[in-house]
Write a structure and sequence with these properties.
5-stranded mixed beta sheet, Cobalt-precorrin-4 Transmethylase, domain 1, alpha/beta, single chain, Methyltransferase, Cobalt-precorrin-4 Transmethylase, Domain 2, 5-stranded parallel beta sheet, 13 strands, 2 domains, about 250 residues
């Protein structure tokens, strides 16, 4: 039997209009869609009435999803493994490639990029990522906190714009405060901060802050919020957050 393939499809921040043409084509051509239930539901309009098999699962079953995708592709199916944002940035691409390398049979894996949450949030805020930046997740579920602290120290001491993913959850209420403390120890001044909840999705909300006032917005900050902390040159202009690239106007 001719083997199928797995397309790891980045679905962007959520709204269907943020999907790339390549992502839409992969979904249209697949036999089977697999993904975390939230991401699959976000593209439900592309699946209804198309006769595709759809498998949804809960957060935390990423390895099982990848192994099932591999087994179905080896049976000859075209599988779309959907991943929010860009699958190669905190997504499913790396894990799928690892799983594909477990067996003796070669499994074709295609990675289809998507708009990242950082990119979507930055566009809503203005242009805060115009210079060097670091993206750091505050979730210590898969990364030891001591390593996260080391990365925060390094990014802040290098005066980089810092994008914080997963800044706060019910089980991690204090890690954002610790992150702010680490950054404050490495910098002078009070850099501009932009907060975007549900970037690119229904219910999108934005708040303007600074590093010193960031913890006053804890009611707004959860797992769906992106926190973008500017560098020493980042500023607000007419409601837009700007990090200058260095052009002389």
């Amino acid at each position: 039997m001719h083997k199928g393939k797995v397309s790891v499809v980045g679905t962007g921040p959520g709204a269907v209009e943020y999907l790339t043409a390549q992502a839409i084509l992969a979904i249209e051509e697949c036999d089977l869609v697999i993904g975390y239930r939230l991401y699959v539901r976000q593209i439900s309009g592309l699946l209804e009435g198309k006769g595709k098999e759809v498998i949804m699962s809960a957060m935390g079953s990423e390895i099982e999803r990848c192994r099932f995708a591999a087994s179905e592709a080896l049976k000859g199916k075209k599988v779309a493994l959907v991943s929010g944002g860009d699958p190669g940035i905190y997504g499913m691409a790396g894990l799928m490639l690892q799983v594909a390398g477990e067996g003796d049979e070669k499994l074709p894996v295609e990675i289809i990029p998507g708009i990242t949450a950082a990119g979507a949030a930055a566009a809503v805020l203005g242009a805060p990522l115009m210079h060097d930046f670091a993206v750091i997740s505050l979730s210590d579920l898969l990364t030891p906190w001591v390593l996260i602290e080391k990365r925060l120290h390094a990014a802040a001491s290098a005066d980089m714009v810092i994008v914080l993913y997963n800044p706060r959850s019910k089980s991690r209420k204090d890690l954002l405060a610790r992150a702010v403390q680490i950054i404050e120890e490495q910098i002078t001044g009070d850099p501009a901060v932009g907060l975007v909840r549900a970037a690119g999705r229904e219910g999108q909300e934005v708040r303007k802050a600074s590093l010193k006032s960031l913890l006053e917005h804890l009611d707004f900050i959860d797992m769906a919020t992106l926190v973008i902390i500017g560098n020493s040159n980042t500023y607000w202009q007419d409601g837009k957050m700007i990090t200058p690239r260095g052009y002389q106007l």
